[in-house]
From TrEMBL, chain A:
PROSITE patterns: ABC_TRANSPORTER_2. Keywords: ATP-binding, Nucleotide-binding, Plasmid, Transport. GO terms for cellular component: plasma membrane. This is ABC transporter ATP-binding protein.
UniProtKB/TrEMBL annotation, chain B:
Residues 2-218 form the ABC transporter domain. Belongs to the ABC transporter superfamily. One of its GO terms (biological process) is L-amino acid transport. This is ATP-binding cassette domain-containing protein. InterPro entries: AAA+_ATPase, ABC_transporter-like_ATP-bd, ABC_transporter-like_CS, BCAA_Transport_ATP-bd_LivF, P-loop_NTPase. Keywords: Amino-acid transport, ATP-binding, Nucleotide-binding, Plasmid, Transport. It comes from the Bacteria.
TrEMBL record, chain C:
One of its GO terms (molecular function) is transmembrane transporter activity. It comes from Qingshengfaniella alkalisoli. The chain crosses the membrane at residues 14-35, 42-60, 66-86, 107-127, 147-167, 196-217, 229-257, 269-288. This is Branched-chain amino acid ABC transporter permease. GO terms for biological process: amino acid transport. It holds the Pfam family BPD_transp_2. InterPro entries: ABC_transp_permease (IPR001851), BCAA_transport_permease (IPR052157). The keyword Transmembrane helix applies. It is a multi-pass membrane protein. It comes from the Bacteria. Keywords: Amino-acid transport, Cell membrane, Membrane, Plasmid, Transmembrane, Transmembrane helix, Transport. GO terms for cellular component: plasma membrane. Belongs to the binding-protein-dependent transport system permease family. LivHM subfamily.
Automatic annotation (TrEMBL), chain E:
Keywords: Cell membrane, Membrane, Plasmid, Transmembrane, Transmembrane helix. It comes from the Bacteria. The lineage of its organism: Bacteria, Pseudomonadati, Pseudomonadota, Alphaproteobacteria, Rhodobacterales. GO terms for molecular function: branched-chain amino acid transmembrane transporter activity. This is Branched-chain amino acid ABC transporter permease. GO terms for cellular component: plasma membrane. It is found in: Cell membrane.
């Protein structure tokens, strides 16, 4: 690729006691691209995202975002600098309504700690929040308490919150797990379309190869903490090792 | 093995299941298919006694357990794998798997444990690690193992393949299919039967809390 | 030198007492996530029951040596009855509610029990000093020490080890740990959660009652003895790490020796020594010394 | 004619309920009933107060003092308030009594600050019992007079105002008496601590010749139960200012020879007269136990109020009675009470000390020495602390 | 919506009207209300922290600091001007709150409760040792002047009540403003999911610290008001039982409005007073039974009655 990478990891390594969750992970992400990450269970996919977003500190290696070294930065700082994520188990505010969830995301993005006396619930903000809900097809649930919603909706909300404030990079950890099969594609479309409007760089972890094929031009395959393959999706999915360890023979 | 008659369940005043009926004869594998929010999890939880039904009956092996507390089911040979894994974080993987065995006071069936480890060699590898450290998919496997260890008669598996890498999912399907031969009944829920099409003898579709039966072929 | 041995003995003695009154609290919190303020009332009731039981016992002219058996029986019976009554009668309707709310529920129980005690036993003191005097004293390094107090240390060690063994080494104990982590899934896996809760609460209550029973012969059994105890027990349990039995032991030793040191070397700081220790421990280890690791979240 | 309503705040719950609240309440009930029936010996053999029957309103002192006082006065419309044991509550209530202009008698509360600092120009407020100053001063004098070895003195007092004040006054008194004592240990366990193992060890290891103790209630009893078997009383002379309260409770376990007082001319230290004989007999008969000093103090507060209202005459208001009460002398089971200090609002009384003894299984005191009020209380124009500091200036002792 | 406090001005106006009407209550009842207003502000401080998922079992600390600041300035330094005393009480509490927030903002759940309890009990221990402050007996606070005017004994209670009522309403207004602000709205998010909040770029610690400081200021004001109302302060203000009472009121009242804890505290005091009147020997039992009944029957606090009405 000709353009400069927006996010680069070099030789990332993470150990938990005796377990090596990541070893020599070097990946470059380019502005505007959509990248899929696949891999066996426990291959280190979530660990990778956790390191990039500052939840885990790598045992070795560096992470560069827009040329700046962000290794070891806190999740808050990575978020503020423009890297957002969604979670394998959706991370939401369960007792609040969908609308409130998004409003909170907006306040947090806008003012970090929140201003002390200016009213936060402005008409403008309400409109913006409703617009986000509409963009992610969540408007039907605006006033429902989030904890009572089906998994899929929670996942979608999780992504919507990550998208607030138009970050430069979004990392989605299994966005479609828990979403019913006939809704997966629709959901990816509703989730990704608004993000793709801008120049957002997107990485998603996925176990469903149909989704991977459909939405990602490039795929990285993980196995046992290392990168098994990295390249155009079609090639990676044909890779023998990937077929053996990740996809399995029959299903591909 | 499992017979559910016109089950009504409401959560916080909202009816979720309406007259849901379903039966799984011994030795069959039934699929409960439905979109998000259709009520699959609610159904499973009600069968397990984790939710109080407002009406209807649940029979296990012809015994009416509708009003019985949750814990009587495991000793009857019912294994349950919840959708959200729910391992005991400070227990090791093996302790988690053996939990129902210890709970019911039955002796540890080594052969069955070995069978589970053979089925999923990856969990054998981390058998002595604490459950809290595992990745999402790994936890899912452990939860499946935990259901298998007591589920001599009936397995209730709530979206067992969700978040499991395809290669492994295929292997699991084969093994669950093999259980039929042992006379076990299985009820597994999925949002679609792509994974389990070959596995399922009976297909039930749940929609807005109502269950309709389809034949596997027709679906 | 005399002072040193006095500090060692006093610290140990006070720690033993603190452990006895605190361990039930940590057990109940550990299993049920209920920070039980009524624990103080249980302790007080234990003391009153001991006073009454021994009153009847001595009144009947029974042999003095067996009075200790009577104390044990009284503690067991009173603890089980009281624990089951409170758990079955009130708490079980509130399971799953907020932790703080449960604190207040038990606070309400505490207030009710305090007045109930007053109604049953009146406000005047009760005395049953015979067991305390029974064993006499020994001189340790020139310092006379009541044998009863030394036996209390033995009792604390035995009961503590017993409880720890029960929790760590028995099937029941493992089940209890599972229930702590996830009540619902434990039930689904075949654990009789109701029984575990009732048992745990009863055992915790028995410990509180035992604390009161063994203390009764040393003190005037009067209204209000429960209030002082509960806050001390809280401090001990928090220092050690809520819900941990070894933690309660360590917390009791910390607090016991802090007090002994203060009494002998700087008596003016006695009152807040224990809180200072608690604040200091929490400042360094926010979840107490023996805190459990929490699970991976994302 | 309507009844005479008296609000009686005493401890009905908490640790002070047994040792203070109960005897005070019982004494009040006894006196109200006897007064209403006209059965109290002279000069109180008239019915009620000014012929009006007395109606009591007991409230729990262990609640918000300011709120409850207002409730008594403004909601319940009592004619007088007689009660209060805790110094903290007395401090709260003192200015209120003046503000609400209600005839109020404090029964106990030892702190001398009430009239020294809190209400320096009292109109409606009285205290019919002596302050705690006389306990400490009397204790020091008794120790000196009885020839105790005062070379090494230790103290164990509850860690709150009462205990601290007592210890401060006692050590200051020793200094004033020039005993040359060395203070070898000062213990301040928490109020209601109950466990004194460490404190007792500390006392034992510091080998004091004299131990001063101002505990009350369960703490006092627990202290004796835990220290006597370990030989503290055998090794040192132990003085307990509230020791008389132990007589009906742990009779057999108080070591003989321990020095005790009843914080004034009460109970075993009371003079023999018609009122005292009647009171102790009537109390014991009705309640089956001896009247400890709080009961005596309550009795004398009530009788003082009656005397004041009756001196002011029929139809007297609280203000009239207060005016009459100031500087008055009245008879009580404890003898003649002089409202001598604080413009005649604070009583002064003597105090007796003696050693505990069991005679035929009955608790009693021996080696009694009684100090007159003028010997153990500051003169009207001096604060307690200044008076002790000045070496008991103007004290009249025989 | 849990985070929506836009109706708050209406409730506060209702409170203001109630307080004006209450001026004509009998003296004892109005006094009860007046002290309850002071305590209610502290309970409100507890409620604010509860919104962030934190239960302060040592809120009495700030109450005590407020009370002692007023008391010490008035009784020991001779400054008896309310316009100096009350701001001083608030500032003292704010400063201590800010210092403690550095430590406490790291703690959550029961550990926050226990550590705050420990800190308040350390102050208790110190005050008990301070003989010059009257130890456990505390000390009395002389009558105060208002902008130089020292009211006569006759009208003093009226003025004190008026000032208390005005300050309470004002405090509620300021708190309502804060609740509607960004920092106020994010509290609920701290309670529910800090990880999510961090990943949205906000700092839970900062939000918690702000809450702690605001709650401290409110409680300082409450303590100052109490010192002036009852004319007496003592260390029991920072004892855990006092703090426990605030927590109880906070839960009883619910967190739906700033005025809920204020009214809740008054209700509790009424129950206590009548229980004492009705059964001086068993008032604690009545209080306990009422607590249990409320917890069992009104899981979301008394304010849920108001909210339920609004919804239907
Ligand atoms: N606590 C609750 N309060 C109210 N409604 C609830 C609650 N929990 C679940 N529901 C509702 O019950 C319905 C059924 O939920 P359930 O989890 O059983 O669906 P599901 O078929 O398992 O969906 P999924 O594929 O997302 O797992 C959903 O519409 C959900 O919103
Ligand atoms: N906090 C931790 N402590 C110890 N081991 C951990 C921890 N987090 C992850 N691991 C281990 O690191 C490895 C990688 O885990 P990770 O969560 O990254 O897997 P994953 O690729 O996301 O898997 P899945 O598809 O199941 O979500 C696993 O073996 C896991 O057990
Ligand atoms: Mg993962
Ligand atoms: Mg489901």
């Amino acid at each position: 690729m000709s353009r400069d990478a927006i996010l680069i990891t070099e030789g990332l390594e993470k150990q938990f006691g005796g377990v090596v969750a990541a070893r020599d992970i070097s990946v470059a992400m380019y502005p505007g691209e959509t990248l899929a990450v696949i891999g066996a269970n426990g291959a280190g996919k979530t660990t990778f995202v956790n390191m990039v977003t500052g939840y885990l500190k790598p045992s070795a290696g560096t992470i560069r975002f827009r040329g700046r070294d962000i290794t070891g930065m806190s999740p808050r700082d990575t978020a503020r600098s423009g890297i957002r994520r969604s979670f394998q188990i959706s991370q939401i505010f369960p007792q609040l309504t969908t609308l409130e969830n998004v409003i909170i995301a907006d306040i947090a993005a806008a003012e970090s700690g929140g201003a002390l006396s200016a009213p936060a619930l402005t008409g403008e903000r309400m409109d913006a929040a409703r617009a986000i809900l509409a963009r992610f097809a969540l408007d039907g649930f605006a006033d429902s308490i989030v904890g009572t919603l089906p998994q899929g909706v929670k996942k979608q909300l999780d992504i919507a919150m990550a998208a607030v404030g138009d970050p430069a990079v979004i990392l989605l950890d299994e966005p479609t797990s828990g979403v019913s099969v006939d809704e997966k594609i629709g959901m990816m479309e509703t989730a990704l379309a608004p993000l793709k409007d801008g120049e957002t760089t997107l990485l998603f972890i996925e176990h469903d190869m149909d989704i991977v094929r459909r939405f990602a031009a490039r795929t990285v395959a993980f196995y046992e903490g290392t990168i098994l393959a990295d390249g155009p999706t079609g090639e990676v999915l044909q890779n023998d090792k990937v077929r053996q360890y990740v996809i399995g023979g029959a299903h591909a | 093995m499992l017979e559910v008659r016109t089950l009504d369940v409401a959560i916080a005043g909202t009816p979720i299941l309406r007259g849901a009926s379903l039966d799984v004869p011994p030795g069959t594998t039934a699929g409960l298919i439905g979109r998000n929010g259709a009520g699959k999890t609610t159904f499973m939880r009600a069968v397990m006694g984790l939710l109080r039904p407002e009406g209807g009956a649940i029979l296990l092996d012809e015994r009416d357990v509708t009003a019985e507390p949750a814990h009587v089911r495991a000793p009857m040979g019912v294994g349950y794998m919840p959708e959200d894994r729910r391992l005991i974080p400070e227990f090791s993987v093996e302790e988690n798997i053996l939990l129902p065995v210890h709970a019911t006071g039955a002796g540890v069936d080594r052969a069955r444990l070995t069978m589970i480890y053979d089925l999923m060699p990856e969990i054998a590898r981390f058998a002595d690690r604490k459950a809290l450290a595992l990745s999402g998919g790994q936890q899912k496997l452990v939860a499946l193992g935990r259901a298998l260890i007591v589920g001599h008669r009936l397995l209730l598996l709530d979206e067992p393949f969700e978040g499991v890498a395809p290669a492994l999912a295929q292997r699991l399907i084969e093994v669950i299919g093999g259980l039929r031969g042992e006379g076990m009944s299985v009820l597994l829920s999925e949002s679609d039967h792509v994974h389990s099409a070959d596995l399922i003898d009976e297909l039930f579709v749940i929609e807005r809390g109502e269950i309709t039966r389809r034949t596997a072929q027709a679906a | 030198m005399l002072k040193f041995s006095a500090i060692m003995l006093d610290g140990m003695n006070y720690a033993a007492w603190l452990f006895l009154v605190a361990v039930g609290l940590t057990l109940i919190y550990g299993v049920m996530r209920i920070l039980n303020i009524a624990h103080g009332a249980f302790y007080a009731i234990g003391a009153y029951v001991c006073a009454s039981a021994l009153g009847v016992y001595y009144g009947a002219g029974l042999p003095e040596a067996l009075a200790f058996l009577a104390m044990g029986v009284a503690a067991l019976v009173a603890g089980v009855v009281l624990g089951l009554a409170v758990e079955r009668g009130v708490l079980r309707f509130l399971y799953g509610r907020d932790e703080v709310l449960m604190v207040l529920v038990t606070y309400a129980m505490f207030l009710i029990l305090e007045d109930a005690v007053k109604m049953i036993w009146g406000v005047n003191s009760y005395f049953v000093y015979q067991p305390y005097a029974y064993f006499g004293f020994v001189e340790i390094g020139g310092l006379p020490y009541q044998v009863y107090d030394l036996l209390m240390v033995v009792l604390a060690v035995v009961l503590g080890l017993g409880l720890w063994f029960w929790l760590e080494r028995t099937r029941m104990g493992r089940m209890t740990t599972a229930v702590v982590a996830d009540r619902e899934i434990s039930a689904a896996m075949g654990i009789n959660v109701t029984r575990i809760f009732a048992t745990t609460f009863a055992i915790g209550t028995v410990f509180a009652v035992v604390g009161g029973v063994v203390t009764a012969p040393k003190i005037a059994v009067t209204p209000g003895i429960g209030v002082e105890v509960i806050i001390l027990a809280f401090a001990v349990v928090v220092i050690g790490g809520l819900g941990s039995i070894p933690g309660a032991a360590i917390g009791a030793i910390f607090a016991g020796y802090a007090r002994a040191l203060c009494v002998h070397l700087a008596p003016q700081f006695d009152l807040f020594a224990i809180y200072a220790v608690m604040a200091a421990v929490l400042a360094v280890r926010p979840h107490g010394l023996f805190a459990k690791t929490s699970g991976r979240k994302i | 004619q309507d009844s005479f309503k008296i609000g009686v705040p005493v401890f009905l719950s908490g640790a002070a309920a047994g040792p203070f609240g109960e005897p005070e309440k019982q004494a009040a009930e006894l006196l109200f009933d006897a007064l209403n029936a006209g059965e109290v010996p002279g000069p109180y053999n008239t019915v009620g107060i000014n012929g009006r029957t007395i109606e009591a309103r007991f409230t729990d002192e262990a609640s918000d003092a300011a709120v409850e006082y207002r409730n008594l006065v403004e909601r319940d419309g009592v004619d007088a308030v007689i009660g209060y044991t805790s110094s903290g509550n007395c401090k709260t209530v003192a200015p209120l009594a003046e503000e609400l202009e209600t005839f109020t008698v404090f029964v106990d509360c030892g702190t001398p600050q009430i009239f020294e600092e809190v209400v320096t120009d009292p109109k409606f407020l009285f205290r019919t019992g002596p302050t705690a100053t006389s306990d400490a001063v009397g204790a020091a004098r008794y120790l000196v007079d009885s020839g105790a070895d005062l070379s090494r003195v230790a103290g164990i007092n509850q860690n709150y105002a009462w205990g601290q004040d007592n210890w401060r006054d006692f050590t200051a008194s020793l200094k004033a008496l020039d005993t040359g004592s060395e203070i070898v240990s000062e213990q301040f366990p928490q109020l209601g601590a109950g466990q004194y193992g460490a404190e007792v060890s500390a006392l034992l290891t510091s080998s004091p010749t004299v131990v001063f103790n101002s505990f009350w209630g369960g703490d006092l009893e627990a202290f004796v139960l835990q220290s006597a078997p370990r030989g503290l009383f055998a090794r040192s002379t132990v003085l307990m200012t509230c020791g008389e309260a132990l007589f009906p409770t742990i009779t057999k376990d108080v070591p003989e020879g321990a020095i005790v007082s009843a914080r004034g001319p009460f109970s075993v230290f009371a003079p023999e007269n018609e009122l005292s004989t009647w009171f102790s007999a009537a109390y014991e008969e009705r309640f089956g136990t001896m009247a400890t000093y709080p009961a005596w103090k309550m009795a004398q507060a009530i009788l003082g109020a009656k005397a004041a209202f009756e001196k002011a005459g029929e139809g007297a208001t609280g203000a009239d009675a207060a005016a009459a009460f100031a500087g008055m002398e009245f008879e009580a089971p404890s003898g003649t009470v002089k409202m001598a200090n604080a413009n005649g609002h604070q009583a002064i009384q003597g105090i007796g000390f003696g050693t505990y003894a069991l005679v035929d299984g009955e608790p009693t005191v021996e080696n009694v020495k009684f100090y007159e009020a003028e010997c153990t209380s500051p003169p009207a124009d001096m604060t307690a602390a200044a008076w002790i500091e000045a070496g008991f200036e103007g004290a009249i002792c025989d | 919506m849990k985070t929506d406090f836009r109706r708050e001005p209406v409730y506060i106006a209702v409170l203001a009207v109630l307080l004006v009407l209450a001026f004509f209550l009998p003296g004892w009842l109005r006094f009860l209300l007046q002290t309850a207003l002071g305590g209610g502000l502290v309970a409100l401080g507890v409620v604010l922290q509860m919104r962030a998922g934190l239960v302060n079992f040592g809120q009495g600390l700030y109450y005590c600091i407020g009370g002692y600041t007023v008391g010490m300035l008035a009784a020991k330094a001779g400054i008896t001007e309310a316009a100096i005393l009350l701001p001083a009480a608030v500032i003292a509490a704010l400063v201590i709150g800010a210092v403690l927030a550095l430590l406490l903002s790291r703690y959550r759940e029961i550990f926050y409760a226990m550590l705050s309890l420990a800190v308040s009990m350390i102050l208790y221990g110190l005050l008990v040792k301070a003989a010059w402050l009257g130890s456990t007996d505390g000390f009395n606070v002389p009558p105060v002047s208002y902008f130089g005017w020292l009211p006569d004994r006759g009208v003093r209670p009226d003025i004190a009540y008026g000032v208390t009522a005005v300050l309470t309403v004002l405090a509620c207004f300021l708190v309502a403003r804060y609740l509607r602000s960004g920092a106020g709205m994010l509290c609920e998010a701290v309670a529910e999911n800090e990880i999510r909040l961090e990943y949205l770029g906000a700092s839970p610690r900062r939000i918690v610290s702000i809450t702690i400081v605001i709650a401290a200021g409110l409680s300082g004001l409450g303590g100052g008001i109490l010192a002036i109302s009852t004319g007496h302060v003592d260390p029991s203000m920072t004892n855990w039982t006092t703090s426990g009472g605030f927590v109880f009121v906070a839960l009883l009242a619910g967190r739906g409005s700033t005025i809920a804890p204020i009214l809740g505290f008054f209700l509790l005091e009424l129950v206590r007073t009548y229980a004492l009147d009705f059964a001086p020997n068993a008032w604690q039992m009545i209080l306990g039974a009422v607590m249990l009944a409320v917890i069992l029957l009104l899981p979301d606090g008394l304010w849920s009655l108001v909210q339920r009405r609004r919804k239907t």
